[in-house]
Amino acid sequence: MANLLGVAIFALAILISVSLHEAGHMVTAKAFGMKVTKFFVGFGPTVWSFKRGETEYGVKGIPLGGFCKIVGMTAQDDDVDPADEPRAMWRFPVWKRTIVMSAGSITHFALALVAIWLAAVSLGLPNPKFPTNDAEVRQEPAVISISDCVVPDSTPRDCAPGDAASPAAQAQLRDGDRITSINGKPINNYGEMLTSLRALKPGDTAQVGYVRDGQPGQTSTVLAQTQRPPIDNPKGAVGPVAALGVALTITTPTRVTYGPVAAFGATGDFTRELAVGTVQALQRLPQKVPALWTAITGGERDVDTPISVVGASRLGGEAFANKAWLLFVTLFISLNFFIGVFNLLPLLPLDGGHIAIAWFERARSWLYARIGRADPGRVDYLKLMPFTYVVILIGGVFTLLTITADVVNPITLFPR
C-alpha cells in the first residue's frame, strides 16, 4: 500500500512540474503581450474548464502533461484571427520569444534547484568526500570490522569448515576498533595497514596497536594466509599474503547536511555534477537501446538503462515505501533537470528547436542586410515537417521501449 501511495505521490509531483512548465510559457507570453487562448492540464477530452479574460483554463481527461496555446507561434499558423495578428508570437523580438520558449525548461531547473537546497538543509546531500575508488578508500582511517574467518583463496565466499579463524578475533579486537600501529610502525589509514601486513608473512606474529572508545590498546596475534594480487597492481597475479581477518568500516558519512547559507554553495556543486551527469546520460541514450531490448525480451535489466516516467514513478514508490526520502527527492530533481535539458535540444518539436529557428532567422536577416540582399523572411515550418516527424517517431519508439521495459522488467533498488 505504501508503495502504491508513493507511486501516486511521485506521479502527481511530475504532473505538477510539467504543468508548471506550461505555466512558465503562459506567464512569460502574457507578460510580453502575446495572446494565450488556452492553458490545460492533461490531454484528451475536457473534464472541466473556465474562461478568465481571453484564456480558457481547465483539466483534460488524460493526466499526462499539459499544454498552453499561444497565438501565432509560427508565421505559418493559419488559425490566427486578423485582429490578433499584432499579438502573434512570431511577430515579437527574438529575445522575447527565446524567453517564452525557454521558460518551461527554466521552470524545471528552478524546481530542481529549490528541491536541492531543501534537501541540503534537511535530508543532506551526497558527501563529495565519500570514497568512490580504491585510492580514496585506502585513505580512510583503519577502522575495522572483524571477519568470521580468513578465506584461503582470492574468491570471496562464506566461511567453510577448515577455514582459518580470524586472527583479529583471536586477538580480542572488536568491530569499530581503529588500528594505529603494526609491529610498532604507525598506521594512519587503511592503505598503510594493508602495506604493513603485506610486509609480513603468513604465520608471523603481529603486535597490533589500536584505539577503542578513545582508549589506546595493544594486542598480538598470529597472521593467517590468503591469496591476493599486489597492492600496486590489482589485476596482477595473486599470491600468498598475510591476513589479519578484518574488513574496512568506512567512517566518512555518505551525506552531509548544510546550514541555510552553506546550502547555496552545496546546491551549486551538486547542480554542476548533475549537469555533467545529464549530458553524459543524453550521450549514452543511443547505445542503451540494445540493452532496453534485451530487458524487454527476457534478459537482465541493466540499472544504467534509461527509464520512463512510469519507471521513475515506480522507483519513487519504492523509495517512499522504504522511507528513502533522499532517493525520492533525488529522483524528482534528476527527472526535472533531465526534462529541462532535453527540451532545450535544438530539434523540433522541442522548445529548443523553436529557439534555434528564431535565432537562425535573426542571424540570417543580419547577414543578408550586411551583404545588401533582401531579408529572406521567416523559416517555412512546413518544409521542416518531415524532419519533425522523424524526431517524433524516434522519440515515440524510444518512449515505447522504456515504458515497456519499465512494465515487464522494471529496475528495482529494494529487492524483495
UniProtKB/TrEMBL annotation:
It is found in: Membrane. It is a multi-pass membrane protein. Residues 10-364 form the Peptidase M50 domain. One of its GO terms (biological process) is proteolysis. Belongs to the peptidase M50B family. SUPFAM superfamilies: PDZ domain-like (SSF50156). Pfam families: PDZ_6, Peptidase_M50. The chain crosses the membrane at residues 99-120, 324-345, 387-408. The keyword S-adenosyl-L-methionine does not apply. Residues 163-190 form the PDZ domain. Keywords: Hydrolase, Membrane, Metalloprotease, Protease, Transmembrane, Transmembrane helix, Zinc. GO terms for molecular function: peptidase activity. It comes from the Bacteria. The keyword Ion transport does not apply. This is Membrane-associated protease RseP (Regulator of RpoE activity). Its cofactor is Zn(2+). CDD domains: S2P-M50_PDZ_RseP-like (cd06163). Its main location: membrane.
